[in-house]
Specification:
By secondary structure, this protein is of the alpha/beta class. It is about 45% helix and about 15% strand. Strands 1, 2, 3, 4, 5, 6, 7 and 8 form an 8-stranded mixed sheet that branches. Strand 5, helix 8 and strand 6 form a beta-alpha-beta unit. About 0% of the residues have low confidence.
Length: about 350
């Protein structure tokens, strides 16, 4: 073997090894759930992913100016078809934030954040609770495993239903976890049928918070508790500041939000539909550690992953539109980070409510 042949062989081996390392070893921030080579557009046909992304981006260009609110659920469904695989690959199975905890991994911090929700609901084995906006079921599995309660999750996205059911079975929790495809603004459940309910960074997708809170109130048994972690602007937000407005609009546009609400509106809305508000608190407030630190630490991972996504799209393994989606999520991550650093936005404004006991 001559020197040139040896050099070419070595170079090819290094490139092949590097590609394998990128895709298979460093493919996921969590190293579980989804491989880079399996990235898709969810239920969207691969040849339509790019067009669907363009339609989504046009619709949410100016979230607060959306006039056709009835179309929001359909575009939220499109959004989760586009992002679910990327979320699982690069973030994990729990599509939400949590405060950083010194000495704990991001995964452990996420689990503790989820377990706190069900601890406040005070439910256990034999009880039936609702997960309003369950995604692929990361919180559902943590909560069912921790409490022993039966959890029924609802998500508008059929692809997420399939992913959640697969994960539930793999985790051995399919007996405790049930997943339903539906709109949490019109849930297919009977009145007074749940012993508790929670929503983790999900109701922000509702055009009107009152509509989803009313539905949750309807399906809860009298005396039962509901807890929600809400995405809101804080008292530090100044609508007259162009920088603040840019940050909030960037968050809305990249996360399929029909307009972020002020923290002041949350308890007010809960009371309006009939709930008794037990407590409310921004879980991101000091002494909580920054929830956005994980986003900042993930910048190198983003560039690594973007190279992977671009190569896979070029090779025809991933749909072309996936590159656009991945870039959108990176830009949105920057807006989220700025929202956290400036203190004008929190993704974990907690409200704990009770449906009053029936009057005799």
């Amino acid at each position: 073997m001559d020197l040139l042949t040896l050099f070419c062989t070595a170079t090819a081996s290094i490139l092949a090894g590097g590609l394998y390392w990128f895709v298979c070893i460093l493919g996921s921030a969590e190293q579980k759930g989804k491989a880079a080579t399996q990235l898709s557009g969810g239920s969207i046909a691969r040849e339509k992913v790019q067009d669907k992304f363009k339609q989504y981006w046009t619709f949410f260009r100016r979230p607060k100016e959306i006039e056709t609110a009835e179309k929001v659920p359909a575009f939220v469904d499109t959004f989760y078809n586009l992002v679910t695989d990327i979320y699982e690959w690069g973030w994990g199975q729990s599509f939400h934030f949590s405060p950083s905890i010194p000495g704990k991994s991001h995964r452990d911090a996420t689990r503790l954040h989820e377990e706190m929700a069900v601890d406040l609901l005070n439910v256990g084995p034999g009880k039936r609770i609702l997960d309003a906006g369950c995604g692929v079921g990361g919180p559902m599995r943590a909560i069912a495993g921790h409490s022993g309660a039966n959890v029924v999750g609802i998500t508008i996205n059929e692809y997420q239903v399939k992913r959640a059911r697969m994960h539930n079975k793999k985790a051995g929790l399919d007996k405790l976890c049930e997943v339903v495809c539906g709109n949490f603004l019109q849930m297919p459940f009977e009145d007074n049928s749940f012993d508790g309910a929670y929503s983790i960074e999900a109701t922000c997708h509702a055009p009107k918070l009152e509509d989803v809170y009313s539905e949750i109130y309807r399906v809860l048994k009298p005396g039962s508790l509901y807890i929600s972690y809400e995405w809101v602007t804080t008292e530090a937000y100044n609508p007259e500041s162009s920088d603040h407005v840019e940050i909030i609009q960037g968050i809305e546009r990249g996360d399929a939000l029909p307009g972020l609400r002020s923290f002041k509106n949350i308890a007010e809305t809960a009371k309006k539909v009939g709930f008794e508000v037990i407590s409310e608190k921004d879980l991101a407030s000091p002494p909580a550690q920054p929830w956005w630190s994980r986003l900042k630490m993930g910048r190198i991972a983003y560039w690594r992953n973007h190279i992977v996504v671009t190569c896979l799209a070029w090779l025809g393994i991933a749909p072309k539109g996936v590159v656009d989606v991945h870039e959108m999520l990176f830009v949105t991550a920057d807006y989220l980070t700025r929202g956290g650093e400036t203190g004008i936005f929190t993704p974990m404004y907690m409200i704990l409510c009770r449906k009053p006991e029936s009057k005799l």
